[in-house]
Amino acid sequence: MNALTQELVELLCLEKLEENIYRGISRNLVGKRVFGGQVLGQALRAASYTTDRPAHSLHAYFLFGGDVNAPIIYEVDRLRDGKSFSSRQVRAIQHGRTIFTAMVSFAPLEDGLNYQISEPNYPAAEALKNEAELKQHIVEFVPENVRASFMRDRLVEIRPINPSNPFLPQPEAPAYAHYIRTHDSISPEVDEVSLHQAIAAFYSDFTLMTTALRPHGLSYLSPSLQCASIDHAMYFHKPFRVDDWMLYDMEATISTSSRGLNFGRMWQNGELVCSTSQEGLIRLREIETQ
């Protein structure tokens, strides 16, 4: 694996401290606070270590911003191990405080009724420029004090379908889509379903919350804006690989009371493999101080 993929895998491989307690490292991926996708992926991985079943759903709340300079402790409660489902509760702890909590349900794959909506018709990933190339076209708009962090490579490769300049946002439809995958194939020695699911959870937080900003002509970089994830849900429908292109199609249905509600679907090879939803805080500081 190349260095970026190796770093992502290491980020989502936790150290076992004792039974049901794990420690994860933190990385500065989006600024002063821990990236929500990191906590989602690590919490899911911690829960996965306590069962041999794949996850089928995750429901999480972000309680406090995480400290990028400190590790995170994950405590897993084994709530239930039934014939069909296993239930786990996970708490993420930093500096003695719970910063995140999640419920995760696991179930083996089984045959049954089968239906899905149609995949949206977008250009293939190979026909699109990747995010790194697109950033080069807008480098003149990037302030010097954030240029290094903005231009650095992400741990994953992203190819936006309708890219826009976050430094010059314009009102747009409340929808967004991109293709996403790891930069390199997952090595056989770590190629586990739980890792692929954890990386998909990591993926799922990219741009989802900010979809609700688009009709307002705002971006996550708008100086007057306060943004934070409040909750996050994810459903795993079918097996997938994170080192193959996944189409992540997102839409927002409402923004009100300083919150926006967003939904996403992940597609691979024509199959709907994951669904997501997230409510986020989108507060204008000028309105807050009036």
From TrEMBL:
> Which keywords does UniProt give here?
Hydrolase
Q: Which residues form the Acyl-CoA thioesterase-like N-terminal HotDog domain?
A: 30-107
Instruction: Identify the domain of life.
Output: Bacteria
Which Pfam family, giving just one, matches this sequence?
Answer: 4HBT_3
Q: Which residues form the Acyl-CoA thioesterase 2 C-terminal domain?
A: 147-281
| Transmembrane regions | none
InterPro entries under this entry?
Acyl-CoA_hotdog, Acyl_CoA_thio, HotDog_dom_sf, TesB_ACOT8-like_N, TesB_C
Family, as annotated:
Belongs to the C/M/P thioester hydrolase family.
What is this protein identified as?
Acyl-CoA thioesterase II
Native species? Acinetobacter towneri
